[in-house]
């Protein structure tokens, strides 16, 4: 039996463990005044040099946002957010115009995060759009990709250079009326990535964006738009980190994905925003709307997410299976520790015929954290032969944490087959004993078992991410067993 | 005028009359319930637990209420013989919400069990009833419970004293009888003392082709080591609306077995809240629904594991045809410290037509780590291979479908502990699937 002292030793060990990405970068950042009103929306739009239609879109969203209330239904305790105490635009590239070079401090920051912005240093086969606060710092390999007709740039550049595409698709998957945070994002969104894969093109490299919040008292409102035209293929990765701060920082993003006939999109996220300290102080509020519209026949979309960071996560990457024969997948591992709270899951809306979706969700809770899966599977009356399989498992490490499952199934079709199963348990004593017996200490054994438990999901990640995710998983859980 | 307003006005106008025809214990909580109702109103679909049933519309029609407790001219013994045969039960009748004193000799039941009118018992034993009445069914949490508490004047009381074992099943038949559209607010209080053991079968029937709206609140206290079996069968008609809230509290090592069977109805909403308060308590909650036409059945359960070493099992199965709507929302809550909880929840549904709708929501909310909890839910159709196999052997498609649907629902019926009831239900369900069971057997009232 382990004594209380050894337990405390573990707890201490966790407490001492630092969030690896919690540093700040000392770079001149142009931050606008705090507060939110129509003038701020106009200011953001003018700073980005946007056309009138874009400003109109923002203003409409803002006016609608003012009529909305914050959603309270999540199984999370979102602290009261003072929307007037946040600055909605922070530009670390403000000096760029005087000096064409990127501030070396910024380059160093991304180097430190393992995201080198110089193409010769980058991992082969990955193009990066690096975004700090409200601005895209650099997009690598854009030229190389453009040769194939692929557009990979920041959304700000896309609005300027490809207005027709943006105008056609922006807000078509997540309209600004969708929810409170979607309306907020639509009003004040800053940068994010824009990807367009033309007909029949298979993107030769992984595309990725890396989001970093640096400035104090700012929020990040990125917007990503991915369009895969007929027969196209792209794999897209997203990573994120933030400095350690005592106050909460708001991150309200929108990701829209459009998948056309026979196209395939893979979207993978490793979310590692600052989760707050061991007492639940600070951390990022991650309130995100992600949705894919599978418009084409036989289109395919796969969401894979590894959620380890953020004080509060409120995120439901969803799929609208509109095209006949479309397929969607959702693989998720959500780890919560200390006082983190996560309410995450997916929505699969089956509208086309012969559509298929798979949901695999693994929740791991430790410390005093709360981890919820919330998912919706809907088969409309036209969705003949819709097929869904969902499985959500929760693992509890420690007696003070919580694991919850809230699946919703709305079936309006007699040919739909929908299955859902969920289990909640702690790590089996037998498995631990087996490992101990073979000389593997408890701590390591837990890591082994957890990694095995999450393997179904980790296997779906691109290789570069899988390694990082696996490391992250063991780091996040270190010291939780006693 | 909102549908709440007519009930608020009614209470304000008729408060004296309602109280005059009831007793002090029931009257004592009435005003508080009224205040709660005024505040809460009818739950809207935005209230998570009422997501699948629109309540306020159901209360809109102008229903009659028997506030003055006029005797309904019916002799249930002559008019109604809808009992489950061979059950050798003790039979009691509740006409609308009025308890009819049993004509059967009391010797049928052992000493130490009381099955009587709630209002009468409350007059004789006010302290006992006050101790239990409206304690589990809190008016400030649910608009329907508040409405029921504010309007209920009588109902059924069951009191099984310490260590009394009742072998025979007590059958209570709720008959809805009226010449006009009628609202009934029925109240049931069951107190099982330590070591008591009893089984109850509640059957709901509508004797008239009128629009009925029933709100029912059942409070059941299951003492340490006691055992309560509660079977509820609904066999009414499409004009009937039933909203039933069942609250159960279980003490140490107690057993509670609940089966809810819906064969014919209009709109039904069953809420079941079980609080497992003593270690070693165990509950089984099963339900089966066979619905067609425009039937709507919504089962909503909450199993609250408050202490360690408790076990809960849930199995709900639905077969939906035509434009029927089914909903199941089951929440299992395992509180902090409720270690060694074992809980399983299964909901399986067959949608047989394109227009049938099923909503299912099996939820787990767990705050303790050493637990084994699982839930599973499926919505689908009959197995094509099985159908083919049967057709190959000369069984018609219709018959093969019936056989498979019957086999599907059978799993729930087989969980019923009472053999005669089980056999009877096999028979009733089969008839139901064949569309033959439109009225109850042997009933003189329904023609």
From TrEMBL, chain A:
Domain SUF system FeS cluster assembly SufBD N-terminal stretches: 141-203
Ranges for domain SUF system FeS cluster assembly SufBD core: 211-452
SUPFAM superfamilies in alphabetical order: Stabilizer of iron transporter SufD (SSF101960)
Any GO BP: iron-sulfur cluster assembly
One Pfam family per UniProt: SUFBD_core
PANTHER family (alphabetical): FES CLUSTER ASSEMBLY PROTEIN SUF, UPF0051 PROTEIN ABCI8, CHLOROPLASTIC-RELATED
NCBIfam families, A to Z: PRK11814.1 (NF008773), sufB (TIGR01980)
Family: Belongs to the iron-sulfur cluster assembly SufBD family.
Record-given protein name: FeS assembly protein SufB
From TrEMBL, chain B:
Organism: Leyella stercorea DSM 18206
InterPro entries named in the record: Fe-S_cluster_assembly_SufBD, SUF_FeS_clus_asmbl_SufBD_core, SUF_FeS_clus_asmbl_SufBD_sf, SUF_FeS_clus_asmbl_SufD, SufBD_N
Lineage summary: Bacteria, Pseudomonadati, Bacteroidota, Bacteroidia, Bacteroidales
Family: Belongs to the iron-sulfur cluster assembly SufBD family.
Annotated Pfam families: SUFBD_core, SufBD_N
Domain SUF system FeS cluster assembly SufBD N-terminal residues, every copy: 1-172
PANTHER family reported for this sequence: PROTEIN ABCI7, CHLOROPLASTIC (PTHR43575)
Ranges where the SUF system FeS cluster assembly SufBD core domain occurs: 182-408
Record-linked SUPFAM superfamilies: Stabilizer of iron transporter SufD
Protein's name according to its UniProt entry: FeS assembly protein SufD
GO biological processes: iron-sulfur cluster assembly
